Amino acid sequence: MKTQKKHWSIIIILLAGFIIRMVYLYYFKDTVFFNPFLLDKHDQKTFILWAQNILQNPWYVNGEAFYMAPLYPYFLAVIYALSSGSIFVISIVHLLMDVCLCYFIYYLGRKVYNEQVGVIAAFLVCFYRTSIVYSATILSDGLIYFLYIAFITLVYLALQKPSIARWIFAGIVLGFSALAKPTIAIYLPFLFIGLYLYPKKELLPGRFNYRLQPIIILAILLASSGVTILPVTIRNYFVSGEFVPICTNGPVNWQIGNSSDSIGLFYYPKGELLSPFSIAFWKLFFTKVNLFFTSYEWPQNLDVQLIEKVVPVLKLAFVKFGFIVPLGVGGLLLFFKNWRKNFIFITFTLSNVLWVVLFFVTDRYRLPAVGCFSVCAAYLIVWTVERLKDKKLLIPVSLWLFVGFFAFFFNITPGPLIPDESYIIFSNLSIRNIQYDLKQRDVKKAYKKALMYFKISPEDYRSNYLLACTFYEQGEKDTAVSFLNNTLRLNPDFQPARDMLQDILR
Q: What band does 23 get if pLDDT is binned at 50, 70 and 90?
């Protein structure tokens, strides 16, 4: 009976995670952030156009070595072709992938400690706000998150039941992970050490010497991932004549995060590149560590804080970075008690912090680390309950005081919750989307977007004018006149509103 209840717990959590994502998608599809073709200067448009180029010529694409990691555009191209270009269907596939990821988190929690940790970790991830936002968006981060967590899950599956086939499969997923985001390579030295430290000595079937097993496993992982990556390397050399294993933007991203005028966030610098042997480099490094653990969601391409305002149903996703990570840091400290067994997981968690901090911090880059910290947070909760049952209070109380201090120290909102730049981007996207919908004679869509634009920026003369246009197209001329008068009150020199008002009154 207990086993059945445990199974029902994770099924209910996954079902709830899927429902909240579908409800969010239902409202998100009517926002100005949904159509990637209208998102100029955003990665969403870059990816969808790239996917279209792939469908036209899967090998040459644009005839150059890949600038960004290519797996997601190819993944997107396949779904785009199968769904006949439906952005809604593509988003559903993304959502299903995110729910599967929640199950991987559950499995990780089980293997790292026990069933309860897995269930709680899955619950935290299922209701994590930022993950839900990006799971419905045409961006590569959902796939990166999925593959990174899938890889460490397969590592633990292979540790549980040693099999050469399982290690090969883990290597293939490692290769796909690298094709999605090459930074996973940072973890391989730690994994190699962790295999030596792992208490279980039978890591492979047969009579392999236990000292040689980590070397053999690393060789299997490198070989199978290398074979997975090889077609991209061959393609890059064939079209460009240059040896580019995966993509060329690594040095660019390094410069963004490690120049003399870098701010630690996404910002194109103009200063000279800092040397890792300089004090300035490490000063900037620790600035980025502080930015990483700050509870604020650092926006790039999407502002999660603004999305919550545009789609209020997102408030149901009540788990946020500032809740998971402080608890996760406390749980991570507990894992050090049995550090030899947990070294593989501890270093995977820290590697997902390290690769972000080495480059630059954004909310979406933090997703794989949040997945790991959710397991740590769940472990802290379960461990605390167990200690309280044993009437041991000193260490749990001390640890929770540390967690509270950590949460308080990093609970920072730098300036306004939603910066002016995000409002400017939202206004420009609203204008472009509403005009597009009106040209397509889709007045209902235009009205929904215009109404949201007005709610977010009621004192913007453009929001009043565009809402007037949608009322006019629906035959509600009196209401249109009212909003046109508001437009001219806010901007008396706005001639289109004056001309439209005269036409209606005439």
A: very high
Mean pLDDT over 408-414 rounds to 94
Q: How many domains does the chain have?
A: 2
Contact 44, 301 (CB under 8 A): yes
Could you tell me where the DSSP H helices lie in 60-209? 71-82, 87-112, 115-126, 129-135, 141-160, 164-180, 188-197
Q: Which of 370, 386, 409 is the last residue of a domain?
A: 409
Q: Are 130 and 297 in contact (CB under 8 A)?
A: yes
Q: How many CB atoms lie within 10 A of CB 370?
A: 24
pLDDT tier at 6 (50, 70, 90 boundaries)? low
Q: Tell me the two tokens of residue 304.
A: 């999660």
Alpha helices, DSSP H only, in 241-366?
250-258, 279-293, 304-310, 321-335, 339-358
Residue 1 has pLDDT above 50, yes or no: no
Model pTM score = 0.95
Q: Which domain holds residue 279?
A: 2-409
Task: For residues 147 and 266, give the distance between their C-alpha atoms in angstroms, rounded to a whole number.
Answer: 24
pLDDT tens per residue across span 28-79? 999 999 999 999 999 999 999 999 999 999 999 989 999 999 999 999 999 9
What values do phi and psi take at 23, rounded to 5? -65, -45
Q: CA-to-CA distance for 378 and 355, rounded, in angstroms? A: 24
Going from the C-alpha of 238 to that of each of 58, 75, 232, 234, the distances in angstroms are: 14, 22, 10, 6
Whether residue 296 sits in one domain with residue 436: no
Predicted pLDDT at 211: 80
The 3-state secondary structure of 404-435 reads HHHHHHCCCCCCCCCCHHHHHHHHHHHHHHHH
Token pair in block for residue 126 = 């299922």
Examine the pLDDT at 7 and tell me if it is beyond 80.
no
Assigned domain for 416 exists: no
Verify that 381 and 464 share a domain, yes or no.
no
Alpha carbon distances (Å) from 203 to 104, 168, 175, 217, 341: 21, 13, 21, 8, 13
458 and 380 share a domain?
no
Question: What's the CATH code of the domain at 459?
Answer: 1.25.40.10
pLDDT digits (tens, 9 = 90+) for 260-309: 999 999 989 999 999 999 999 999 999 999 999 999 999 989 999 999 99
Q: Cα dist. 320→132, 191, 407 in Å?
A: 11, 29, 12
